[in-house]
Predict the 3D structure of the following.
Amino acid sequence: MNCRVEPAQPEDLPAIAELVAAVGGDLEDLLAEQFLVGRADSTSRGKIVGCGRLKPYPGFCELASLAVDGEWRNSGVGRSLVAELVTWYEGPIYLICEDDVVDFFRRFGFVLIPMSGMLSGLQSKWQRYVAQLGHINIMRRYAD
Ligand SMILES: CC(C)(COP(=O)(O)OP(=O)(O)OC[C@H]1O[C@@H](n2cnc3c(N)ncnc32)[C@H](O)[C@@H]1OP(=O)(O)O)[C@@H](O)C(=O)NCCC(=O)NCCS
């Protein structure tokens, strides 16, 4: 299955919202310029089968709203998205994730950090997920 990773366009936002909602991801303030999408078929009209974004905060970025269509998982879409997103910012990148994807993110240099390393900008999101799920991880990556 072929998939091309490229910057999102504003008209992609409904498809992005659908993908992110399907995995219970971050739907706040969806801005096309923060997103990369994985598009099937290598055509400009190809279906969006994956997405992810880099959200800027003062002094760091957050990798968020990463989602791959169920039928396209394990095809390298998630890897392509993350590998490119981490090149967009040279400072520290944080993310909040469930246990089942910690090892996926370790592949890209993210490491688990203790809650004492939590940034105030991510506190409210972290608390929201903890309230929903009981536990959530925070990971950080420094540029190579
Ligand atoms: C996590 C997710 C984005 C991975 O996307 P994907 O396209 O299936 O992943 P890829 O096919 O690019 O996988 C790349 C590598 O990571 C591995 N991998 C995939 N999911 C993994 C996981 N959950 N844990 C550990 N390794 C994983 C693959 O086996 C592959 O290994 P390889 O290079 O040895 O072949 C996808 O499963 C998903 O959308 N999950 C639900 C949403 C989610 O949890 N998002 C993250 C919230 S921040």
